[in-house]
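re the bet — no i am not wrong, look at it urself. input seq straight from the record:
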Amino acid sequence: MPMQDTPEDRQPGEARSVPLPGSERAPAPGIRDSLGPVDPSRRIEVTVILRRQEEMADVPSEAISRDELASRYGASAADLDLAERTFATLGLDIVESDAASRRIRLAGTVERMSSTFGTSLDELTSRSPDGSAVTHRHRTGGLHIPAALDGVVVAVLGLDDRPQARAQFRAIPLAAAGTSYTPPQLGKIYNFPAGTDGTGQTVAILELGGGYGQQDLDAYFQGLGIATPSITSVGVDGGANQPGQDPAGADGEVLLDVEVVGALAPKAAIVVYFAPNTDAGFLDAIVAASHANPTPAAISISWGQSEDSWTAQARTAFDQAMADAAALGVTVTAAAGDNGSADGATDNKDHADFPASSPHVLACGGTRLQADASTGVISAETVWNDGPNSATGGGYSDVFPVPSWQSGTAGHTTHKPAPRKAGRGVPDVSGVADPQTGYQVRVDGKDMVIGGTSAVAPLWAALVARLAQATNRRFGLIQPLLYENGTQPASGFHDITVGSNGSYHAGTGWDPCTGLGSPNGGALLAMLQAKGLVR
């Protein structure tokens, strides 16, 4: 049981503390240019996550309201009050608190934050997930929390603001592409449901850098003969739409996501959430998007990183936030990674990419596609693999167990090598991702072809929005519907049976390269209608 100290009886900095499980953080990779301790007077903000008042054993089969989420699965009033009073007594400012998302946003000096959470913060330069050098706050080891909050606080994010994720895309000049497709052509090839265009639906897109310019969007959609969709941007934790300012070229990621969703669901409202590329910023963006009004049909995430590059507390907090999203009726689609079965790791082991490996996310893998754009006929579709660092991610989670809806798949035993342990299989679904057969887009005034599993996440988000329009319902955790056929080829999919992503090979039915396969949207809608899932 938590030790219930009386915070009013303590002076700032005098609270007894206990370790925060799962907060241990390894040194950042490629450290150089250590600049010493962070200025103790600098003011920073962090995100604190509290425990649920009731565990969510399973995501509700029908979408619930935000009020119901708060009353059942949010933070209790007593926990929220205790945490606010404790942190205020310790000299920290409460910027925001929310029972439904169980979050408290705290602000204070580096000195006060370090004292409260039992750590020290240095400023240094390290290698970010995309390979560039970046200067940031840095900590190692575990955190501590006030003893009064033992068991109440489950995560503290944002003290260390190293870049947490990388954009999962690959770009090539238009002239260098062998075969490429516009998103509407892919809508035809993948048989997106006729008579749907996303009307009445909202699709959220999460971005951790970069931006888009209206001139690019107007020129792109005019070229497709489509009116520019409704696109708005929302800043989270100081993030903003800033095209042309990202040194890693994240504009390509942003415009790919927006143009794919906009071209495949042109009548949907598209909301792009920009947040800092930190564990706190990423989580806060997920919460902002999933708790928005109106509730989106889908959230597209094209950013990720190998599971072992996250703290355990961050993985848990993210997974719970995406479970909340599913409970609210939101389907979260996420790129499965672009670095093969190793996910770019250098330890000679296979790794799944997170957040795609969360069982509350529809993980999206990649294929190489040969099809007739005019007729929509697919002549060949295989696993995308152009080499170790240009291939679809896929494999098995080391931290999340096999979910119930995936337990009927035989992939864990039939697709060699067998995983070290039976974890959640990635991906769930797939679509074209090979840049050699990629997506025609426009970025910063240039026409180019972009691939990567980051293109598949918005493709599936657009499809989910059109299925939601056709059935007049939101699906939330859609995987139980998709996996009903177990080891056999699933209804509504093109089964991919040729190719590998490194360690794993494609096969009949689900496999750890392309999941259930690429979509046949019309057949998926027919399957949903046959189940009576129409309001």
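see?? The first strand starts at residue 17 and ends at 19. told u. also Confidence is low (pLDDT under 50) at residues 1-13. so pay up
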